[in-house]
UniProtKB/TrEMBL annotation:
It comes from Kushneria marisflavi. The keyword Secreted does not apply. This is HTH lacI-type domain-containing protein. GO terms for molecular function: DNA-binding transcription factor activity; transcription cis-regulatory region binding. Residues 7-62 form the HTH lacI-type domain.
Length: 345
């Protein structure tokens, strides 16, 4: 018994008595046809068993995959559960959906030697989000010779979308310290990518410093110094993940050992965890303990006391980054603004 040959675009066009370009436009360039004409062609194609042009064939003909790779510095589970990363990915998806692109999520947490072959020809451009990827991964991405845009970092020769993390941290720390603080402490988020949660020695040589955290720490330290504190004497505590589960044990120990009257937190999630634990202990906020966040997530603005924080528009960053990598925007280095939210903490 002979096998039925698969239906082709050319056969569909012959059956309908139209050109192959017309059928192709119905699938790939709907703006070239009226809605009625396009629906007629798609309905007929489905009845004939034709689902559309082969993605592999399109790639061979055009040299394009209609895929944008997004390199995440953290694992997929962590990134998809994070409010800031989620906002960024939503902004990217909004642009890619409108342009007919697909999003491919990649993670620098995987070994470079396992990723190498899978990178080749897989995407029309790449976004790199978070911290600077390992040298091998970055070299592989550059070797693709496709548009490459970084988000929240700057690398030589590459386009970037970012906020000024140092300036944001400096501004909120100045605001918090203006009320006076005798025992300030800093709660860092992944100060170093390979350290567990707990107190960090200020003069230690961190093997894998997190670029975003380093910028925020620099802003905090400048404000502390301006207020008459020696930054090296201010307790620095590290949390390995931006979750309640990761933060709570570290904050419990911090409250026991450091007894701060001001806690400068590198994320809203850390600040909200500290606020919850302080309330459970009967510590009055802001009368006994003042604290600040960073990111401006909705949860911090919906509760009482409302969180004092720095707001960044992660969704807008995602939109801009996606427009840059797809060539819709020709800007090279974009710095999005941040601003203070004067809460009650």
């Amino acid at each position: 018994m002979s096998r039925r040959r698969p239906m082709t675009l050319k056969a569909v066009a012959a059956h309908l008595g139209v050109s192959t370009a017309t059928v192709s436009n119905a699938f790939n360039r709907p703006d070239q046809l009226s809605s009625k004409r396009r629906e007629e062609i798609l309905t007929a194609a489905r009845m004939l068993g034709y689902d559309g042009p082969s993605r592999q064939g399109q790639t061979l003909r055009t040299g394009r995959t209609c895929v944008i790779g997004v390199m995440l510095s953290d694992g997929l589970g962590y990134s998809l559960g994070d409010s800031v990363a989620g906002g960024l990915l939503a902004g990217i998806a909004e642009v890619l959906d409108g342009l007919g692109y697909h999003m491919l999520l990649l993670t620098d947490a995987a070994k470079t030697d396992r990723q190498g072959a899978s990178f080749n020809g897989v995407a029309d451009g790449y976004l790199v989000y978070g911290s600077i990827p390992e040298a091998g991964t970055l070299a592989l991405l550059r070797h693709q010779h496709q548009p490459l845009v970084t988000v929240d970092m700057r690398l030589p020769g590459l386009a970037s979308v970012r906020i000024d993390h140092r300036a944001g941290a400096l501004t909120i720390a100045r605001h918090a310290l203006a009320g006076g603080a005798r025992r300030p402490a800093i709660l860092a988020l992944r100060m170093t990518l390979d350290a567990p949660g707990g107190r960090l020695a200020r003069r230690s040589q961190w093997s894998q410093p997190n670029s975003v955290a380093m910028e925020r720490l620099a802003g905090f330290d400048q404000a502390l110094e301006e207020a008459g504190h020696d930054p090296d004497q201010v307790p620095l505590w590290n949390v390995a993940g931006n979750t309640f589960e990761a933060a709570a044990p570290v904050i419990e120990t911090l409250l026991d050992e450091s007894g701060p009257d001001l806690l400068l937190c590198m994320s809203d999630r850390l600040a909200l965890t500290a606020l919850t634990l302080a309330e459970q202990r009967g510590i009055a906020v802001p009368e006994t303990l003042r604290l600040t966040g960073f990111d401006g997530i909705a949860e911090g603005q919906r509760r009482r006391p409302m969180l004092t924080t720095v707001y960044q528009d992660s969704h807008a960053k995602g939109v801009k980054a996606a427009r840059m990598v797809t060539g819709e925007c020709r800007e090279h280095d974009v710095a999005h603004p941040v601003w203070l939210i004067y809460g009650d903490t």
